[in-house]
Amino acid sequence: MSASRIAGGELNYAGIGATENGVPPEGSDCLVTQAYVGDGEAAYRRAVQGLLTWQLHRGAGLRVRAESDVVRPGVRVVSGFGVGPFRINAPCEVVWVRRPVPGGGPQSAGFGYGTLPGHPVRGEESFEVSLDERGQVLITITAFGGPANWFYAAGGAVTDQARRLVTSRYLRSAQELAAGVN
To answer: What is the pLDDT of residue 121?
Structure first.
């Protein structure tokens, strides 16, 4: 580990990179959320630009500390959710990135990151923005994993509620990015 790393340790779950191909490890809980965020190539490009520069996360109300302003494989990021002493920090490392291609037409771009020690869960989450053949822009958020320890397992209902809240904020942020609002 380099002294400049913002989070220590190594990726701590099975199936590293599995969100890229859509096949989570056997036996893991997997949640896929997809939503419409806009229309047209310009909306797609705005949403992707925001996604690949952490703006999706900031727009969702998370405090983001990243080793790079641009999402790249190997970059570590610590997202914070909550207020004051009730803030939960979630260290992750980017495990894959797909960049947009020039021109229009159906395509997708996004990234997946995996958990590091100190994250409340062990697993992976990906964020993918796509432009379909009709010009619709969609975001797909895929997450698999489970609680990192007994404490988070015991708070299952609270953890599930927090996950739903953050996911809804990601969706709103993606819609705002596509519309050019934030």
So the answer is: 81
**Residue 180 one-letter amino acid:** G
% pLDDT > 90, the chain? 59
Using DSSP, state whether 41 is helix, strand or coil. helix
Tell me the C-alpha to C-alpha distance, in Å, between residue 43 and each of 69, 110, 131. 21, 15, 9
Summarised one tens digit per residue, pLDDT across range 13-35 is: 899 999 998 788 887 888 899 99
Contacts of residue 94, Cβ cutoff 8 Å, sequence gap at least 6 = 71, 72, 73, 74, 75, 76, 77, 111, 112, 113
Q: How far apart are the first and last CA of the chain?
A: 35
Higher pLDDT, 54 or 103: 54
The continuous run of DSSP H or E covering 75 comes out as: none
91, 78 contact by CB (below 8 A)? yes
Report the predicted TM-score, pTM, of the whole model to 2 decimal places.
Answer: 0.89
Q: Give me 44's structure tokens.
A: 């797609």
Domains and CATH numbers, the chain: 18-179 (3.30.530.20)
